[in-house]
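G., the chain you wanted modeled:
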Amino acid sequence: MTEPTAVQKTTHVQASPYTSPWSLRERIGIMLWSGAWALFCAWTPKPLNPWRLFVLRCFGAKISGVPFVHSRARIQIPWKLRLAHRACLGDRANAYTLGEITIGEGATIAQEAYLCTGTHDFASPVLPLQTTPIVIGANAFVGVRAIVLPGIIIGERAVIGAGAVVTKNVSANSIVAGNPARVIATRAL
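Predicted structure as tokens:
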């Protein structure tokens, strides 16, 4: 996977802070997805991962190879999720896919980690939704309860420490921790 250097922010059109930025079709899709995951996947044991991947594919997730998605993982909009071979979305991990999230080959998103692609334009009284993709590089590791903010690119083999709040891009092989996350070491090759 080629490591991108920048991602594009999208400001969604909203008439007021109380109107949805999503089309009627998208809202129906999100409702159907929530029901389908609860009914068909949320209760399944780990060995039924192929079934969960099938359901994700049915809802437009772009999946290559055989990644792992825990039954208690939360995915807001599956058609904005890309999973590569051996990528892992752990127990209660939250992929808040208002914008695209790409999880590279062999990358792990640990339990209760939060990948957030959405925020708001606070300069506008309408507070329109702004989405920016997140890219997690191959073989990267996002630790338990870490938070990755919109527009972040995490390089290949990078490690995000438990509870870290990632506010800036993380270069390949870096180990970061803290709030805000800072480089504390470099991962040995």
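The helical segments are 24-40, 49-58.

Shout if anything looks off.
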